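Please predict the structure of the following assembly.
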Amino acid sequence: MKRTVPLREIASARTGDKGNVSCVSVWPYDPRHYEDIKASLTADRIAKAWPDLFRGPVERFEIPALHGLNFVIHDALEGGVNASLNLDFHGKSFSFLLLELPVEVSDF
Amino acid sequence: MAGQVVRIGAGAGFAGDRIDPARDLAERGNLDYLIFECLAERTLAYGHLQRAQDPARGYNPLLEKRLNAVLPACVANGTTIVTNMGVANPRAAAHVAIEAARRMGLRIRVAVVEGDDVTARISDATFLPEIGRTVGESGLRLVGANAYLGAEAILPALDAEPHLVITGRVADPSLFLAPLAHRYGWKLDDWATLGAGTAVGHLLECTTQVTGGYFADPPYKTVPNLAYVGFPLAEVDADGSAVITKLERTGGCVTDLTVKEQLLYEVHDPSAYLTPDVTADFSNVRIDDTGGDRVAVSGATGRARPERLKTIVGFDGGFLAEAEFSYAGPGAVQRARLAAEIVEERMRNVHGCDERIRLDLIGVNALHATAIRRPAETQDVRLRAAMRTGSRDMAQTLLSEVESLWVAGPAGGGGYRGSINASVTTQAVYVGRDSIETKMEVLQS
């Protein structure tokens, strides 16, 4: 059985920034959800979800040893801390954009 | 003796970090080293601006307050302090430290590490790869440039057995790696061990981000006593494996998840985290939460260090003007939208402003405004106008236009605030190691 839930119900996330690049790591609370999240949260999906905000390519790094995913989002910070007019010029809140996304997970 | 560990704590993770948890660590942590990391990418360029105004300044403004809080305990307990609070003026910072120690009746030795400042090597011909132009072509006004030094630059200072090491730009994890390499005699080409030590430094360098800060998301993630979250310390073994923990009777928590989240914080490729010391590989790190706010971390490794050193070049970024105004009650969103239209209209057509102006409705669409529109039922909205400009006069004009909404805008608006701040922009360039000459000097109170 699969069901669809907001990512926030099954995973934690944290945002960091370097220049005009944002990175968001995603960590399932239960390692058994790792494969489902990996299948659901592709780099392509993140790149297409908010194209006005995340303007550059998105890379995804997998850390299977720790059951984590790391998204590196280029051209995500409106030019970076130096140029952005966004109140949140570090993009600290981006983790909660990802956590809103619906993901399909297996019951177990 | 066998089984002994090095105890290393983090006393600051950014320029304005809290001081009471650092004092607590200094007094109760039984630490060998206490590290204060206070330099974000742009902080140093602001330090250059301050130093240009006053040659005796340009170091961290909280330096003296921090030393007053921790120096007595550190001297009494034999804890060596390592910090980049020298910012753009490590020598001035050292003199401040010595004066502070004198006032407290302490005799201390301060080692100053210099050589990161490469401003003099930047010319109009310097190529800026991020924008694909030279400094001359960019038209930007140079403020200062600093290379990221590594542990190698700090080791001679530690050999002098000072109470305090003060540096300018040093890579954050290197501030932690240097004392570990010093104490354990790690070779500077023992990449695996340097990678392990770098992981420890990386986990500690943002203080509370590994002890429960930047983490709570109730009801999914709760953190006990977050208001009193403690700063972290690590008990580090000779092979670079460590236990990340915090003091008893502090708030916060150290768990496998706080450690995992921080392990990848600001990391791109987990198998290639670049520092001046090593290309660290975190991809096979083992994290073992043994309970009681103790998490064992091992398995980080590394490969040869990057050939060239990252250097941040700072430029004058003009002014950031920000002004805010509020509307509440029925129709608040519509009135705030009308106010935003008025500000935009008048800046363009009355004042001839062609700068980009951002107009947010806080409570409706601020942080994620360019990404999504959230359904807003709110009746309490704050208009925010923001603009960058080289002209202080135009910056002031934006503030005046928002302030004028009081009498000339929609009904019932209030709560004006406005600010103009000088800003800097930064560009990364990469320089050969042989062009950097670091030096160290010991001063005594």
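Chain A touches chain B at residues 8-9, 12, 14, 16-19, 21, 23, 25, 27, 29, 50, 52-54, 59, 61, 63, 65-66, 68, 70, 72, 78, 81-83, 85-88, 93, 97 (CB under 8 Å). Chain A has a mean pLDDT of 94.
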